[in-house]
Amino acid sequence: QVQLEESGGGLVQAEGSLRLSCADSGRTFSTFSVYAMGWFRRPPGKERELVATISPSGLTTYYADSVKGRFTISRDNAKKTAYLEMNSLKPEDTAVYYCAAKALSAQVWNYWGQGTQVTVSS
What we know:
Elements: E1 4-7, E2 10-13, E3 18-24, E4 35-42, E5 49-54, E6 61-63, E7 71-76, E8 81-86, E9 95-103, E10 111-112, E11 116-121
């Protein structure tokens, strides 16, 4: 069972940086390493959108065009933690950020964190 908890959100000025963490507090050590991890966000008044994903091994990543070149997704399977490094933040990056985990065979993201607020001031 994967239990995800995000941290690292906050208030930052435009062009600033934040690093989000997503820790798996589940009891099974090996589970986290077999899941793909993703970061999503829900801007105020808008639908949830995919930000970035990373494969179980960490070798394959995907980024939405809106964050490409500014955000970096990574993971440390030994620490059961995924990260989202966000640089050159813009006011339009303001959102609640969620991490999620998905078995590779699954069609949907199986597990979700509770979300962390990121606010970028201009």
